[in-house]
């Protein structure tokens, strides 16, 4: 009989959010902790990362909000284990969008997330509770979209970028998307009106670069 377990890297808040998604799908989450000391402190079955070779029969996701750490884990285990997507049944999707996301791996979509249509999503992206992703958006690998963040239409969020809770990225246009560069952080509650550089942090309304 096929196991209904799913491995979830991480033991902090994002891993627990991923557990909720797994359970809503009727799956049994197994957390993967960094070291043995974390085992037993948690409400869920937990295995230490060092023992992962004994658990190759289940698919995995990476329940860690930090984009760079997700990238590291994906690189470390990409050839050894299989990664799946976890999509909460309450998330909604526009025309053919769910099929498109189905071609990716390691994507976690929490309760209440809304995708409209013609949206490209990279691998290992996280869409936290109630985020809204509008039409013609392009999202690179390892992007984290925090709760209630809103990407309006024709936005591009490049690889490794973190959009904070309730941040809004205003729309670009069909011939020129609004671009948020690679490895950038957009603070909670920010309203982004212009393109944002790579490797930078922006906060406030309107968003301004602070580092
Ligand atoms: C943007 C962020 C990463 C900055 O963190 P940081 O680098 O530690 O920055 P600091 O806290 O030192 O703040 C630096 C300055 O930016 C301001 N600032 C920080 N975050 C801000 C925000 N979200 N909105 C407005 N101003 C903010 C601080 O007041 C401070 O201003 P000052 O220099 O005038 O005193 C962080 O504040 C943030 O918003 N994180 C997102 C949280 C989130 O969405 N979590 C989701 C979890 S699921």
TrEMBL record:
Stretch forming the signal peptide: none
Catalytic residues in the record: 135 (proton acceptor)
Positions with a binding annotation for substrate: 65
Site (Increases basicity of active site His) location in chain: 136
UniProt cross-references to InterPro entries, sorted A to Z: AcTrfase_PglD-like, Trans_hexapeptide_repeat, Trimer_LpxA-like_sf
Domain of life assignment: Bacteria
Family statement drawn from the similarity comment of this UniProt entry: Belongs to the transferase hexapeptide repeat family.
Protein name, per record: Acetyltransferase
Native source species: Sphingorhabdus contaminans
């Amino acid at each position: 009989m096929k196991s209904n377990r799913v491995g979830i890297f991480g033991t902090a808040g994002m891993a627990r959010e991923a557990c909720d998604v797994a359970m809503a799908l009727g799956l049994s989450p197994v957390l993967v902790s960094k070291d043995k000391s974390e085992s037993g402190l948690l409400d869920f079955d937990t295995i230490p990362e060092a023992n992962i070779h004994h658990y190759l029969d289940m698919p995995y996701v990476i329940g860690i909000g930090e984009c760079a750490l997700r990238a590291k884990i994906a690189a470390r285990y990409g050839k050894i284990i299989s990664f799946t997507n976890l999509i909460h049944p309450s998330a909604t999707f526009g025309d053919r969008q769910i099929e498109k996301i189905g071609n990716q791996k390691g994507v976690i979509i929490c309760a209440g997330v809304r995708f409209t249509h013609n949206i490209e999503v990279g691998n290992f992206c996280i869409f936290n509770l109630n985020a809204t992703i509008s039409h013609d958006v392009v999202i690179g690998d390892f992007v984290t979209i925090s709760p209630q963040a809103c990407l309006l239409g024709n936005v591009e969020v490049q690889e490794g970028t973190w959009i904070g809770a309730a941040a809004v990225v205003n729309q670009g246009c069909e011939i020129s998307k609004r671009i948020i560069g690679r490895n950038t952080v957009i603070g909670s509650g920010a309203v982004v009106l212009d393109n944002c550089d790579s490797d930078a942090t922006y906060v406030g309304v309107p968003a301004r670069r602070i580092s």
